[in-house]
Amino acid sequence: MKLEHLLEGIPTQDTQGSLALDISNIHYDSRLIKPGGLFVPLQGEHEDGHAFIGQAIENGAVAVLTQLNFKDEKLTVVQVENTKNILSKLACRFYDNPSLKIPVIGVTGTNGKTTITYLIESILKENGSQPAVIGTVNYRYGNKTWNATHTTPQTLDLQRLLAQFVEMGATHAIMEVSSHALLQGRVEGVHFDVALFTNLTRDHLDYHKTFEEYFEAKKSFFSYYLKNSKKKNRASIINVDDEYGKKLQLEVSGNQLIYTLSLEGRGKGEGEKIFQAHIREMNVCGTKAFIKTPQWSGEIKTNLVGEYNLSNILAATSVAFHFNISQEKILKGIEHLKNIPGRLEKVESTKGPQVFVDYAHTDDALKNVLKALHDLKPKGRIITVFGCGGDRDKTKRPLMGTVAQENSTLIVVTSDNPRTEDPVSIIEDIKKGLILSAASSVIIEVDREKAIHKAISLAKPEDIVLIAGKGHEDYQILGTHKIHFDDREKALECLNVYREKRPC
Predict the structure, then answer these.
(1) Angle formed by the axes of helices 327-336 and 113-126, to 10°?
(2) Extents of the domains making up the chain
(3) Cβ pair 478, 396 in contact under 8 A
């Protein structure tokens, strides 16, 4: 694509060199630039991409879009006010607006995003569609997966990925949309068909500072991004069991579908479509529930457990309903989803206690998971292993400690991803929410591997062990380095040497 076409309608402050260049690739990472490329340096929290213009030129950049008064007679230089604000426009134009070519479903909220995207994916596949997914666990389409660098990629990467999915034959794109991505404009230029809100609980307050700022970031997904979408059949889907969901419902306009676990739940207007459900039976193998939609009602079966997962199922059902998928396909899609990586994922073994690994890293998520385990009515104890991430919201640490202790027989407090913080100081913050006494059943073990082994070795076969915080992650961040670490692998190692078989 010609550079002059890429820059049509974009205000520039100065131009040096020819705009009649053919641009073969665009990158904000100088290491990825190839011959014929346009380099767009960004100013980040820790680094300024303008420092790497030289490297971009060495790798073959023929043009640079910059905020600085930069001169180089060997290439074209275009100066603009803010490269970050313009990058999304360049990306959409370069990749020919891929989000206009397939339906795009966005899911936002503190908890539940990953589970809902897996459920929607399963339903769409059951319906004969070929969905692509962008989320926390990975980016995937068909049998191909890519490592997830962010829950929601940077705007250029996102447009490139969507274009790749379209080219490969995807019929739908399902995305987890983080609050960081919304504030940073990463989904600018994405035309959504559906925006879905799950809930708003304490998280990321190190970034957003207040709950109100956090809510406003989520709200912008509906009031700005969905509102400005060029898709004709747009819909907001909102969980009105959540207090912020109720607030959102009142503050955004347009077509709304709402979901609630209360059979008495009501919306604010006659034109709304309401989805409701309640649990009929639940055990360690799964859940049977009754679901009611605006057009049909019936029983669903799922391998997922917990009331919060029934809420996630309602969310996915609402999306499927919006796309006119039949009751039969919806129910089969829900039933055929076996598990979700790191979301109350069972570590399979015939020996020792039942062990579950979950991504819960907020006090609300941890409370929901522990409630789900209590609802299984275990014959033994619930033992919880958890920690808190370093360089992240410190206010949730004592709250997680309180939730873990109140809902477990025994807790083992350990490290999560300490990053550049001292793991011991993180644990000290957690301890502020604990009642520490001789009979308080609290074990402190800084080493996560030892903590997991200690919990399982102390457990009886009829007990349940929950390892919370990291879920699907197969690494641990120590300082600025990653090492391989998978909670599931460590748990299985311990179960393999456990002497007693699990009782039937």
Answers:
(1) 120
(2) 3-86, 98-336, 345-496
(3) no
Q: Which CATH number fits domain 345-496: 1.10.10.10, 3.40.1350.10, 3.20.20.70, 3.90.190.20?
A: 3.90.190.20
179 contacts: CB under 8 Å, gap ≥ 6? 108, 204, 207, 208, 214, 217, 218
* Tokens found for residue 443: 């074990």
* Burial readout 268-303 (b: 16 or more C-beta within 10 A, e: otherwise): eeeebbbbbbebeebeeebbebebbbeeeeeebebb
The first and second tokens of residue 329, run together, are 């396909």
**Correct CATH for 3-86 of 3.30.360.10, 3.30.9.10, 3.90.950.10, 3.40.1390.10:** 3.40.1390.10
Cα separation, 63 vs 37, in Å, equals: 7
Taking Cα atoms as reference points, which of 88, 68, 87 lies closest to residue 78?
A: 68
The type of residue at 156 is: L
pLDDT in tens, 287-301: 999 999 999 999 999
Please name the helix (run of DSSP H) or strand (run of DSSP E) that holds residue 333, with its range, or none. Answer: helix 327-336
- Per-residue pLDDT of 153-197, as tens digits, reads 999 999 999 999 999 999 999 999 999 899 999 999 999 999 999
- Give the bridge partners for 345, in sequence order: 357
Distances (CA, A) of 296 to 255, 276, 479: 20, 11, 53
* List of E strands, 156-255: 172-176, 194-197, 235-239
Confidence (pTM) = 0.94
Rounded to a whole number of angstroms, the CA Rg of the chain reads 24
Looking only at the bridges linking them, the beta strands covering 138-141 and 131-134 are: antiparallel
Level-2 CATH architecture, domain 98-336: 3-Layer(aba) Sandwich (3.40)
